[in-house]
Each structure stands twice: as structure tokens, then as C-alpha cells.
Design a protein that fits this description.
This protein is α/β, with parallel strands linked by helices. It is 37% helix and 21% strand. It is built from 6 helices and 7 strands; from the N terminus they run βαβαβαβαββααβ. It has a 7-stranded mixed sheet with strand order 3-2-1-4-5-7-6, sandwiched between helices. β4 (102-106), α4 and β5 form a beta-alpha-beta unit. The chain is globular and about 40 Å long.
Length: 220
Amino acid sequence: MRTLVVSPHPDDEVLGVGGTLLKRKSQDQTLAWLIFTKPSPVVQWSESQVKKREEELLLLEEFIGFDQTFKLNYLAGLLEEVTFGKLVKSASEVLSTFKPDEVFIPHLGDVHSDHDIVHRCLVSATKSFRQPNIKRIIAYETLSETEYGLDRSRTFSPNLYIDISNFIDQKVEAMQIYQSELGEFPFPRSSQAIYALASYRGASSGFKAAEAFEILRFRE
């Protein structure tokens, strides 16, 4: 299995798919990470903060065990200023290079505009006649984004649960690499919230801890 996780911003991959990625790696599967954005003037990061983020990405790559990482380096919070065709072309080039069997993408109901754009971009780029190798396209939920989407027609409705009981502690440890993104509970990007969501999704599916997803396309 060749798995690609697509992150509008670094940390989305851990919050949404961290346990599953660690589980896949333990099964000797091949992992790749596509990061759409880098810090921009919108977030007003200092030079030292930008450098710190680059260090965090290297640590995260090693911790998860990604075999390849692709960075598109668009500016965070400003994806809507990039032509949609350009974004699709960038994603398509990565898909053609890595040739994944399954792709994890953000949910279409996420409140952040970058997430919405990346979702639509990947839906376009993963059409079967463009990427016939892709068997599964799966949407993940991102704490602090998915649950704040208020459009009830785009509510996250999971139909796939992956047991991460043996990997939830490592998932929380991975998220701690992003110190600037963490806060104290009840802030959603907190260790307690990550454990709570994993327990809830596990209780919904008969596991001690789980990650939940929406299968968007499954080709057998």
C-alpha cells in the first residue's frame, strides 16, 4: 500500500490521520506527505518561528517515518488568491510522481478556507482517468476545523473507523512536536482533546481508540 496524506497546513496530518499513519508504517507500507502551504504574512511569523517550523517538520517526518515529503509552498491563508487550475496542476504532479493507492484529504466541511480549497483541488486531481492507480480517496477530520463547520449539508459523517488503540500515545507525542499549535484543554488542539476524540470514535466502533473517516471513493 502506498499512502499519501494531504495537509493544507502542517499539523493537519497528525490531528486527522496520525494514528493511522503510524499504524500503516508499522505494517511496512510506504508513506508520503503533501504539504500545501508555508507560513505567510497573514500569520505574522518571525524569522525564528519560521525556522522553528522547518525544524518541526523534519522531526515529524522522522517520527512518522515518511518516505517522501512534497512541499508546494503556497502561502497559508491565501490559497484563494491562487488560480484553481494552478493548484490542481501542482497536486497532480505530486500524485503522478508518488502514485499512491490511497489518499487522505481534508473534509469539505472544514471551516478554514484553505481546507475547503485543498479538498476540492484533490477531488479534481484524483479523477480515475487522471490517476488510475488510486483505489481509495478518504476524508479525515481535523480538530479545530471540522467540528466548527456550521454548514449542516457538509457535516462530517464517518463511515470508516481505523483502530489506533496501539498508536494513540504516539499520535499525541507526534502532535507535541508542534508546540506552537498546542493549547490547554478545552482548546481543541490539546492532548486531552485528541485522546477524547479517539476514545469517542473508538466507542462508536468497538475499539479503545480510533480515527474516523469518510470514504469518498473506493475502487476494487
